């Protein structure tokens, strides 16, 4: 069994390489003047923790490009931020055909706005997979102050497992090799277990 630090490191690679690095490779093929909402968010999320059971945590500074006229974070901006942060919690659990890359498609994303986030505030985004099945998954997210004492918003994100765009899968990252090795090892272990029965 892997140590806690090895497991954390593996979960961090699942998210950084499996999601962010692949996304960057794909986005680099877009026209120079094309800006995707999710790319802007992903460029500002700083991964600080992850776990193999479906957990991710980020620090995120709410900049002016996420504001409204009241100089707080715009309600719509929360949607893109939570969408990307909660989706990433699926990456340590993902395999080809199972929530791979962008974790399928969003079915519902429910956000509870509890307190305005002033522009310039650095927040902590924590996401945890609550349920995952062959077709549907549910992830909970929370946006808090860095010390966790103030909760700004919570989210409940339901995802449907769907195949990623086949063009996106042409962009390989080191994480792909690790996933394939794990799947091969799991297949060998499963065959050995069945043979013992």
From TrEMBL:
Transmembrane segments: none annotated. Coiled coil: none annotated. It comes from the Eukaryota. Residues 72-149 form the Thioesterase domain. InterPro entries: ACOT13, HotDog_dom_sf, Thioestr_dom. Belongs to the thioesterase PaaI family. This is HotDog domain-containing protein.
